[in-house]
Amino acid sequence: MIYPTRKAILTMAAGLPVALLFGALTPAGWLASPCWIAGFALLLVLDGLLSGSRSRLTLDLPPALFPAVARPGQAEFVARFGKGNVPGRAEAALAADGRLGLSSAVARAPVQDRAARLGFAFTPERRGSAILHRLWVRWSSPMGLVWKQKVFDLDQAAPVSTDLQSVHEDAVRLSARDALFGAKTQIEHGEGSEFQALRDFQPGMDRRAIDWKQSARHSALLAKEYRTERNHHIVMALDCGRVMSEPVGGAPRIDRAINAALLLSWACLKSGDRAGLFAFDSAPRLSTGVVAGMDAFRALQRVAGRIDYSSHETNYTLALTTLAGQLRRRSLVVVFTDFTDSTAAELMVESLGRLLRRHLVLFVVLRDEELESLLEIEPVEAEDVARAVVAGGLLHERDVVVSRLRRMGVHIVDAPAERIGSAVINAYLDLKRRDLL
Fold it and tell me: Which residues make Cβ contacts (< 8 Å) with residue 102, sequence separation at least 6?
């Protein structure tokens, strides 16, 4: 496609009044307007011929894209000009699926060595099948009177998945600081309540660990050595209903919960416990059961990728009753959910109360900093006051429910969305250290 620039249109429009003035002042002046139009059209053609050739323009596609939710990325296209004149700059516009979250659909770059590198930054907002549909590349002629444009049909798939890279990075950081039981052999000793071995009592050791009966038998002070308990069952119950599909901190709540659940699964499997995933909305959607060993972590990753967004309201009674029926022994149930009304909260509290009769429950609350910020904004208009009142009411209702759960014996994790993974890990380690599992 070839079309005039704004500069060409303004120049043409500026010359027409002058040509009309000549036509009004002289008998032969009426020829000025057609001559001006024909001459300017010829100038446009010549200017267009001197610019880069459309037929010789080729496009290098970016490598296969596998973006992750809330993780910034970039798709870089390279437009290569063939033989002939080369423009100084090139512009491009990209049409892509909305869930890819393009920062800007337009990119500009200088042409160096007959190539222009056109980069499009993006931050995906939701998981799913995203597609790069089409790319428009255009450049101007030497005098800036003509745009030349070429369209490339891409149809390149860019499936948006769970941010497993952040899970891997967090796991590496946890391993580096030796925060997990089992990261080193000596960390296992003395941190739990499972008997490991007898050893000679040394100054500084806890006197309560002395085994007096064995010490009398061997005529030497012997102390019991313990190790961390293993083979506990940890189940991550993920609410993927309508409320959890809404964003917090730039990503849907369910994606934040999936990342935290996978990180907790990695910690559990690393420490010798068993981990499993359970997803639900209006009905149970998937359940892995509890698995053991680090090789099972890949299976949990694949299953987590199948958790979809839902527009259904969450049915806590059906979901948690089904989960309780699947658990054959006492387990730690980590519930990732959120609520917006008192009715849903009442049903959730009732269902968690039944689950508490046999199991240990850890309730994870994603703190909404955007909602909290509405209370701190200085009101200027009546709408600001209304928003602050509504936000304050929602936060108060949440605090009431959380306090009620805490009195029931539910352990609470309340942290910003960006730090929910490490907060859940710390809560798990604290429960294990206190021998509550």
Answer: 94, 96, 120, 121, 122
Lookup: tokens for 170: 């967090």
At 80, give phi and psi (nearest 5°): -110, 125
**Domain boundaries in the chain?**
1-161, 164-182+231-433, 185-227
H helices within 222-356, ranges in order?
Answer: 253-270, 296-304, 316-326, 342-355
Beta-ladder partners of 278: 237, 287
Q: For residue 416, what are its two tokens? A: 């910003």
- Measure the CA–CA gap between 387 and 393, rounded to whole angstroms: 10
- For the chain, the residue count is 437
CATH fold of the domain at 164-182+231-433: Rossmann fold (3.40.50)
For residue 63, what is the DSSP state? P
Residues 6+ apart with CB under 8 A from 263: 167, 170, 171, 421, 424, 425
Quick one: tokens of 53? 């050739």
Rounded to a whole number of angstroms, the CA Rg of the chain reads: 33
Two tokens, residue 355: 């689950």
DSSP string, 328-373: -S--EEEEE---SSHHHHHHHHHHHHHHTTTSEEEEEEEE-HHHHH
362, two tokens: 């850890």
Per-residue pLDDT reduced to its tens digit, 140-168: 888 888 888 999 999 998 888 887 777 77
DSSP assignment, residue 271? T
Instruction: List C-alpha distances in Å: 46 to 41, 51, 148, 232.
Output: 9, 9, 13, 79
CATH code for the domain defined by 1-161:
2.60.40.10
Please provide the average confidence, as pLDDT, over all residues in the chain. 84
pLDDT tens-place string over residues 289-305 = 899 888 888 889 888 88
